[in-house]
Amino acid sequence: MVNFVLMLTERDVTIPDALQVYRDLVADELRTIAVKDVGADPEMIRELTRAAHEDGRSVLLELADMSEKGQERGYELALDLGVDQVVGAWSPRAAEALSGPGAPQYWPFAGQMSGSPLVLTGTPEQLSADARRLSAAPAVAGLVLMPYRQSTYPPRELLRQTVDASGVPVLVAGGVRGAEQIADIAAAGAWGFTMGGAALADRHDDPKSVSERVNEVLRLCREASGQLVIEEVK
């Protein structure tokens, strides 16, 4: 089944009540949660990571500050907090820092990322070349692609070509909101996708809405993966 990563973020910032939202969450099939290195107290992320690990889940940390210094601070934070995966810009220094025993998996972005919220630039051919180059690096465990954070090329085309070119799993991030996109992500063979604000929007008025939406997304993941099996049998 295509993997769903719940981002405990809104507008590219970790929500201040991330720990409480997680504690209230009822979604047995959810395997991974994610936060960003902005908007949250590191101690809260540490406690959140501990709680997720106790539940058998993994934690992904996305580095929002794309500057060189910001990325370096983020990698140090990831090592300190004990998260399982870290997403950021490609850097040989980061790859070296995250290659030691017990270090989190390194999932760099494919393509050029800039702005806030992040925007992807690059042609399908450039992204494919980037995917081949990065996935060949020993320290890289996966790649992150943001096909819905650009408007120049059809996202399906970027998805298919990048996944085909990559030698490691591909996580789709940013702008995933509905069943059609989830089906496209599964059909392309991507490892999974992130979703945050769309699942968290009504939590203040209805705390149970997060669990309901997360379980609905998980249902869509099952359906998308099941459809692939049917097509293969045909």
UniProtKB/TrEMBL annotation:
Gene3D superfamilies: Aldolase class I. SUPFAM superfamilies: Ribulose-phoshate binding barrel. It comes from the Bacteria. InterPro entries: Aldolase_TIM, RibuloseP-bd_barrel. This is Uncharacterized protein. It comes from Actinoplanes cyaneus.
